[in-house]
Automatic annotation (TrEMBL):
Stored SUPFAM superfamilies: Acyl-CoA N-acyltransferases (Nat)
InterPro entries: Acyl_CoA_acyltransferase, GNAT_dom, N-acetyltransferase
Domain of life: Bacteria
One family name in Pfam for this protein: Acetyltransf_3
Protein name: GNAT family N-acetyltransferase
Domain N-acetyltransferase: 8-175
Listed Gene3D superfamilies: 3.40.630.30
Organism whose genome encodes this protein: Buttiauxella gaviniae
Signal peptide positions (record): none
Source species taxonomy: Bacteria, Pseudomonadati, Pseudomonadota, Gammaproteobacteria, Enterobacterales
Length: 189
């Protein structure tokens, strides 16, 4: 199943995505808020896991294609973290785009669609996002799509005292405050 936004297509992964995905995963600038860039093998393994999870749930971390060029730009979508977090169990929204596609509002555009799919099509009640405290670009995306800044926590997979250890959690609920405010009975209550 693929989904369209104004400028992007969120679609299942194709074999030909592996090469541009490996290139962006090997780029230290794209991966500066992660512990390490990925090797080709690690990148292919990640693409395989993403594909498997999408086959299982119907939703997942979609490959994001730019309509104007047909290029694979990276991924945006929903995921169940494979490790325990202080606020588990959760469904997270995440994004990773290659550098040429940054700064165009692509991540928020695709993320709004991913939230709508999760909430409206799959009935998910709440979606979270988290990132290293230093990752301001990612937090900007969380804010642009209406997520609420919540607590800081130490990421369990990042070594103690590492500069990327401290993370920030954002949340958004299906019944968002905006929707509640729009309900006549709540307005007068
Ligand atoms: C985080 C990311 C997905 C944002 O995607 P995007 O499509 O560029 O999002 P936007 O265009 O809305 O820009 C969001 C913020 O990114 C930053 N940004 C934009 N262009 C940038 C550029 N060329 N270089 C560095 N940062 C830039 C700005 O802080 C911007 O916020 P602003 O619009 O308030 O100025 C993208 O930067 C990315 O893939 N980064 C690497 C992977 C990553 O960190 N993923 C998140 C892990 S939790």
């Amino acid at each position: 199943m693929e989904y369209h936004t104004e400028r992007l297509i969120l679609r299942p992964w194709q074999e030909c995505d592996r090469e541009p995905f490996a290139a962006l995963n090997a780029n230290p600038e794209v991966m500066r808020y992660f512990l390490n860039p990925l090797t080709r093998e690690e990148s292919d393994k990640m693409a395989g896991v993403i594909k498997q999870k999408m086959a299982l749930h119907g939703w997942g971390l979609w490959a994001v294609e730019e309509k104007s060029s047909g290029a694979f730009t990276g991924f945006v979508g929903l995921n169940i973290p494979s490790y325990e977090l202080p606020f588990s169990p959760v469904i997270e929204i995440g994004w990773r785009l290659d550098k040429p596609y940054w700064g165009k509002g692509y991540a928020p555009e695709a993320a709004r669609k991913a939230l709508a799919i999760g909430f409206e099509q799959y009935g998910i009640d709440e979606i979270v996002a988290f990132t290293a405290l230093e990752n301001i670009p990612s937090q900007r995306v969380m804010e642009k799509i209406g997520m609420m800044r919540c607590e800081e926590f130490d990421h369990p997979l990042v070594p103690q005292n590492h500069p990327l250890q401290r993370h920030i959690l954002y949340r958004i609920a299906r019944v968002s405050l905006k929707e509640l405010a729009a309900m006549p009975d709540k307005k007068t209550a």
